[in-house]
Design goal:
The chain is α/β, with parallel strands linked by helices. It has a domain of 72 residues. 34% of the residues lie in helices and 25% in strands. The chain is built from nine helices and ten strands. The strands form two sheets. It has a six-stranded mixed sheet with strand order 6-7-8-3-9-10. A four-stranded antiparallel sheet has the order 2-1-4-5, with helices on one face. α6 links the parallel β7 and β8. The chain is globular, with a radius of gyration of 18 Å.
């Protein structure tokens, strides 16, 4: 966990200001703001349809916002060329909700794929096999290197997906519902693995989740996305003890 008292503006790796996005009369984002600091685990919670996915798509340049600014590594992504944006995207790793492994590829081939896509990030002396082995060792799944996704459990697939994310050595990781569909024991294993990854790689993380237990364990700070804005920002303890009915609704078991 980061020391919030020692945070400065120099530590900001991602900043969203006054983000707006509408689809006709459906105003999804109404001035959303967010800051992500170096080494921070930031949890974003919101009801289905609250705008979490839209915000992420705007963040990575897959969707154009109607208004507002997004600064990534001190660079305004709305002003970058496509090549510059693609290069910057390589600093962001994704762990998708369904793991998104290629069913026709072995675990090894799934991890080799992003290395081929981003070959410019690694010099010619980089040993692909060594990078794959290291990534799988970091998630405790080296023995699965030659298995097919169909031979893996849900938790193993999530670990392989995380290994594939880590292999590019991203500065920021976006986790989309990392514990969804997993049994409670496996979900806890994934949460603790996320902790280990953050410590080892010094990553900054945005975790989109509905899992209150996940938020309690993993978060340094939380943002509750309500009515298209950053309605509430604080630590888990601060928000879970809040008296506002809209905020309390997130922490009812």
């Amino acid at each position: 966990m980061i020391d919030r008292k020692n945070i400065s503006n120099q530590d900001i790796v991602l900043e969203i200001k006054n983000l707006h996005k509408s689809f006709g009369n459906n105003h999804v984002l109404n001035g959303f703001n967010m800051q992500l600091h170096q080494g921070e685990n930031l949890v974003i919670m919101g009801k289905s349809g609250s705008g979490k996915s839209v915000m992420i798509k705007c963040l990575v340049g897959l969707m154009e916002a109607d208004n507002g600014s997004i600064s990534l590594m001190k660079k305004d992504i709305t002003k970058l060329t496509q090549d510059a944006l693609d290069t910057l995207r390589a600093d962001i790793g994704f762990l998708f909700q369904g793991s998104a492994l290629y069913d026709s590829m072995t675990v090894r081939e799934n991890l080799e794929f992003p290395l081929r896509r981003h070959y410019k990030r690694f010099d010619k002396t980089s040993n692909t096999e060594a990078l794959v082995v290291k990534a799988l060792e970091n998630v405790g799944l080296l023995d699965a290197i030659d298995l097919m996704p169909s031979e893996l459990s849900g938790g193993m697939k999530r670990r392989v997906a995380l290994a594939r994310t880590l292999i590019l050595q991203p500065k920021i990781i976006l986790y989309d519902e990392p514990t969804s569909g997993l049994d409670p024991i496996t979900a806890k294993e994934i949460i603790f693995l996320m902790h280990d990854v953050q410590k080892k790689y010094k990553t900054s993380s945005i975790i989109i989740t509905h899992d209150v237990d996940c938020a309690r364990v993993i978060s340094d700070r939380m943002i509750l996305l309500i009515d298209g804005i950053d309605y509430a920002v604080g630590t888990y303890n601060e928000l879970s003890n809040h008296e506002d009915p809209k905020i309390k609704a997130f922490f009812k078991h």
